[in-house]
Design brief:
The structure is a homodimer.
Chain A: H1 5-16, H2 21-29, H3 40-52, E1 56-60, E2 69-73, H4 75-86, E3 92-96, H5 97-103, H6 108-137, H7 143-170, H8 172-178
Antiparallel strand pairs in A: 1-2
Helix pairs in contact in A: 1-4, 2-3, 5-6, 6-7
Chain B binds a DNA duplex (28 and 28 nucleotides) through helix 2 and helix 3.
Chain lengths: ~180, ~180
DNA sequence: AACAACATGTAACCGGTTACATGATTGA
DNA sequence: TCAATCATGTAACCGGTTACATGTTGTT
């Protein structure tokens, strides 16, 4: 059973506790969003597929007249999740448009500006991640918090690196001595 | 004129110097691959679209009977590129499956193993990037090398962070005192 | 009464990846 | 002569994003 990206995150979250599709979306936004996002348009169809594949079961749990389906793992789903967790591969992918701008810059001032704005973006992301730390800290498992802290550390690192390089490029002395063409 | 992801990288690379689709692919693999990849299946159709939109022109430059089309920017393409470079937004996206594994781990040893393997992946990527540094260093522009060094620094940082945390989680004393549940 | 949040789902669109298909040139 | 590299392109597939569509419940 090949799991899709969305399938993996759904199974993992359902093992933590049974949830509805809506709750999965909310939890993704509060936890994995910065390295593994998912929208309703992926979640609901994937829940359907996972149920049809027998990896999860859904039970109706309405609030009054508002329908709500809570899903949980089957034994088979548990097995699929464990299988995936036991592997040690999987992609680490980055898509970084501000960096591409720096890459294609034609003058130090332009590259410096691109890096400054990239630094600002990293600062903002780090801040957003810090803001959801309390939610991660309240969970039973300590590992979501660990992942979140990785995110904060990573973006703080990027921010510092970009700021340093931006400053270096903006300094005429350094720029001239290192780029004599 | 809205540029696609692939369109941006093509325009940028064609301004550095005129190239064929094949050469663009080669240069992507030697430079932006780690934060902005593209395959033939994106490049050739996009070249067609850019030409139809008047942003680039292609001229036949065969090697014997082997056909070859070299593209370069038009004034309009130059303008589109500058416009994009002057903006200061654009996504910074990460997709990190090893981190997702750590996130969903249910025991310190499992999280530690996930982080170890993530650290190994970062080490390998950093090595690959270091290996193409000489090629980047030989270019006219210093900024591709800068971007590449960012990649090396970033993956080295991730490697260190993951190794440290993996070691911490594998140490029974620390683990017990920090996870009393 | 109105709005935010809860809740589920579909359809169209978009763009990237993979596989396929073809053929020439160069160097070992 | 054989393999690697140069070179171009299409088609099928896959999966994610966005917009749309609908209705309930709780709060102000």
């Amino acid at each position: 059973m090949e799991l899709t990206a969305t399938g993996k995150v759904i199974l993992g979250m359902l093992r933590m506790r049974p949830r509805s599709g809506y709750e999965i979306k909310g939890f993704v936004d509060d936890s994995t969003r910065f390295f593994w996002s998912a929208g309703y348009g992926s979640i609901y169809p994937e829940l359907k597929r996972l149920r049809e594949a027998g990896l999860i079961t859904g039970s109706e749990d309405p609030t009054g007249d508002r329908r709500r389906v809570v899903y949980k793992l089957t034994a088979s789903g548990e097995r699929a999740l464990d299988e995936w967790l036991a592997a040690d591969d999987g992609p680490i992918e980055l898509r970084d448009e501000p960096l591409l701008r720096a890459f294609f810059s034609t003058a130090p001032e332009q590259a410096s500006a691109a890096l400054e704005s990239k630094a600002a973006a990293h600062a903002e992301i780090a801040e957003q991640l810090s803001a959801i730390e309390p939610k991660a800290a309240a969970l039973d498992s300590p590992f979501p918090l660990l992942a979140l802290r990785y995110g904060v550390a990573l973006h703080e690192f990027s921010r510092r690196w970009c700021e340093q390089q931006a400053a270096r490029l903006a300094d005429p002395e350094v720029t001239e001595s290192e780029e004599p063409r």
